[in-house]
Amino acid sequence: MTGDPMPSGPPPAVSTLAATALVVADMVGIGVFTSLGFQVSDIQSGFALLLLWFIGGIVALCGAFSYAELAAMFPRSSGEYNLLTRAYGPAIGFMAGWLSATVGFSAPVALAAMAFGQYAEAILPGVPPLPLGLAVLWAVTAIRLRGGRRGEAIQVGFTLLKLALIAAFIVAGFATGGDQPISFTPRAFDPGQIFSAGFAVSLVFVMYAYSGWNAATYIVGDLADPPYSLPRALFVGTGLVVVLYVALNAVFLYTTPLAELAGQVDVALIAGRHVFGETGGRLVGALICAGLIPSLGALMWIGPSVTVAMGEDVPLLRLFARRSRTGAPVAAILLQAGIASLLLLTRSFEAVLDFIQFGLTVCAFLTVLGLIKLRITRPDLPRPCRAWGYPVTPLIFLAVTLFMLVHLVAVRPLQSLAGLLMMLAGLLLYGVTTARARNAADRSQR
Question: Are 217 and 235 in contact (CB under 8 A)?
Fold first, then answer.
């Protein structure tokens, strides 16, 4: 590669508060505001519905326990790219990095940006959602490109605002609602609902809503004290989201008839009208828009870390390892923003999300399995943070994740096959890049 490299500098150390805010912002996206409508179509018990969200949170915490041990052992920013490389070798790590660097983060960014545009219509009627989505995407991108501590402060500020707005909605819901014939205490017919196929299928979608619990592992190398900060960010952030998710769904059920929720996507907007009257739609639309800004910020923060690490390891991708004077990985950020914008313009991000979900779930499964593998094969490795409840907690996560994979293959076979092909493409690309690097090394020695 020719030319002088851009001046680079290390990114500033990230505080525990910022890392915790990153976890919360990445987890609380659009899923919790939309998925209950599909769950009440199969489950009519308030206790079973809340138990569903509680179980999903326990599984997410089990994953966080495992990731905390691995990332504290190998504190390099980039998430599964680094962890799978350490556990299985560079080929599997490259495959995970390929998924993340191409569409694994860009598709969720595009979905969040489009959701922002759609919910903003409640506040700005008549404004097309696509330009609004592109505007908020590039506004967040501009903040990330500036680097430094300002982006971290904005991320923390918007996340605290999101939490305050959700807490206010929960308090208002419990204060004004309560006329629905639903009970959150166990009833005689609850076991039949809990062990039904509908409960199992609903758990898959609940786990999607909890995705993002591992966000802090993507910036672990930037933390001031990873063995201290990382587990606290993962546990506190995930635990806080579990409480919020259970409380939010309790408010939805407490204020709104099940018949109105069944099969609906805009669950939060429907519940908002019951809590705040006719202005509820606008208020909840504003709440969701405000909450999506830190979600976009989190995705635009952690996603480029994967591309940066790959650029440091793969000569052909060296451009993406460069940083600005303020520590911002400019090329990596612009790549993710560009792919997300393209997905927005082509309206193909939902299809992309469908087929990458299989690959991303496989990567999470392999990562937690890698924890068990390293405990057996490398017991001598220093472990500054050990997974709480080992081996029960990783086995719980593996069992639920395996169930999700089986469900994806059964219900979405074509999308799962496409996801598998995407993974194989990553392995093929790794073979090509390593072969070219080997040939270049041989020529230089002649």
Answer: no
